[in-house]
Amino acid sequence: MGELRKGSKRNFQWVRPFLKAIAHNGNITQSAKIAGVSPSRIYQYKKSSPTFRRALSAARRQAADRLEKVAWQRATKKDGSDMLLMFLLKAIKRKKYGQPTPKEDSRTTVQILNVVQGMDIQTLRKLAQAAKARLEGQDEVGDADRP
Q: Is 139 left (phi over 0), alpha (psi -120 to 50) or beta?
């Protein structure tokens, strides 16, 4: 790493084995154990070293790529996992299969508020009652509105 000082190489012999392990398993605790260092040392060094932070990020991407490859294989085999397939679809086609992003949610909220803003309170109450009735499984608003 770029932050190594002369004579301090012995203190950082864990870095390469750690990065190799985390690229393979993606787990900081397990990788730290393999490298013979405590997880807290990993987190301390991550805070203080931009070079290590970048290397750690690259190693974790490698681990994620390995997982993704396995997931694709399992999801697409003959008796593959439908749930795993759905997760993959949500990841690569978020707009079609995924949850709306906070930005999309707030855009929808603003659109609803723009529509609701021009309504009188009675109309809003009726809409709220109709929505509540639908949620409770009723077809119509309440018995009180029936003749």
A: alpha
Contacts (Cβ under 8 Å, ≥6 apart) of 129: 141, 142
Calpha distance 98→91 (Å, rounded) = 7
* pTM, two decimal places: 0.55
pLDDT in tens, 45-94: 999 999 999 999 999 999 989 988 888 888 888 888 888 888 887 777 77
Q: What are 108-140's pLDDT values in tens digits?
A: 666 666 666 776 777 767 777 777 777 776 544
Q: What is the rounded radius of gyration, in angstroms, for the C-alpha atoms of the chain?
A: 27
C-beta separation of 36 from 14 below 8 A: yes
Report in angstroms the alpha-carbon separations of 93 from 98, 99, 134. 7, 10, 30
Q: Are 7 and 44 in contact (CB under 8 A)?
A: no
Residue 77 DSSP SS3? coil
Number of Cβ atoms within 10 Å of the Cβ of 59: 19
Letter for the amino acid at 1?
M
According to the model, what pLDDT value does residue 70 have?
87
